[in-house]
Amino acid sequence: MKTDFKIAVLAGDGIGPEVVGESIKILDAIAEAFHYKFDFKFGLTGAEAIYKTGNPLPDETLAICKESDAVLFGAIGDPAFDNNPDAKVRPEQGLLKLRKELGLFANIRPLKTYSSLIEKSPLKQEIIEGTDIQIFRELVSGIYFGEKFTDEEAGYAYDICKYSKDDIAPIVHMAFQEAQKRRKKLTLIDKANVLDTSRLWRKIFKEIAAEYPDVELDFMFVDNAAMQLILNPKQFDVIVTENMFGDIISDEASVIGGSIGLLPSASIGNENAMFEPIHGSYPQAKGRGIANPIASILSTAMMLDYLKLDHAAEKLRESVEHAIENKYVTVDLNSQQPYSTSEVGSFIADYIKYSEKSYYNFENVKIGKSTIV
């Protein structure tokens, strides 16, 4: 069994370095507890890379990623570019190119609710309690990667959405296989009443469905799906959809659990994989120690799954749930007695190594103190 792993670390912009720093702390704890070795190689990307090299994805960074067993990614984006429509080079271009170069065709975003955080959701408890969804988003085709054109003088622009069977089939197979492991229901979200690309998705989806007769099929237009996620999220098990719809739907779904700071993701290809929280760079929180590291930490758990370190992944998720249950969380989840980004990471790392023998006095934690004994 392999025990040594090369991990590319692309911390990126905004709060990216802070949350990824806690994931590295977690991996150090995993290494100590399970006798693994993680060799971290750091690369520039996003706005940070533009400021230093002029390129949102330097060749050196791409090489580090291709030579690694997995990529741990932070966040990307900077207000200086968001507020400048004339900028020709943007941080997001680096992320899109990275996905394409690594062949990361499937983005997987799990969503589950935690009973101790139900009151943090904007939705009623009876609507969301027990929600457990896996969203599969196609990642390297569609309108984000189609031909683009802008005629600034004429005030005219277009973005072309293209899909082929080769783009669609791999992620549909992956979604069916995941549904077989779960509640055996798969929903295709599209806009087949209007878009030819969506009709192609449906055609290929139905063809592939014949190979998975034990999975119940469901079809839903994206506008209705956006509404149903709010009205009755528990009806969904596994969702599969195209790039832009998946981007929007998964961000909408993220608020069901009470904080976008809880949601991890994995981007998977045939030879490479990248793991990142779905939240953005949140520049307003940069350097303040208030960013929620749990999405990044749970993305790390998905990375451990990918590396087939199942017991370590299970222990990490158990440790996260322990922190949440004891309200050892950041201000977005506990405004009365918040802990810093670093404190949350340390609490989880300590539980991984010591569990109930942890240095943390749990009775003090429960009453809002962090005394070490």
From TrEMBL:
Example of a GO cellular component annotation carried by this entry: cytosol
Principal EC category: oxidoreductase
A Gene Ontology biological process term: L-leucine biosynthetic process
The keyword GTP-binding is assigned to this record: no
Annotated compartments: Cytoplasm
Entry keyword Lyase: no
Occurrences of domain Isopropylmalate dehydrogenase-like (ranges): 6-348
UniProt: substrate binding residues: 99, 109, 137, 223
Keywords: Amino-acid biosynthesis, Branched-chain amino acid biosynthesis, Cytoplasm, Leucine biosynthesis, Magnesium, Manganese, Metal-binding, NAD, Oxidoreductase
GO molecular function, one term: 3-isopropylmalate dehydrogenase activity
Cofactor binding: number and manner: Binds 1 Mg(2+) or Mn(2+) ion per subunit.
Cofactor: Mg(2+); Mn(2+)
Role summary: Catalyzes the oxidation of 3-carboxy-2-hydroxy-4-methylpentanoate (3-isopropylmalate) to 3-carboxy-4-methyl-2-oxopentanoate. The product decarboxylates to 4-methyl-2 oxopentanoate.
Similarity-based family: Belongs to the isocitrate and isopropylmalate dehydrogenases family. LeuB type 1 subfamily.
Subunit structure: Homodimer.
Protein name stated in the entry: 3-isopropylmalate dehydrogenase
Organism: Chryseobacterium arachidis
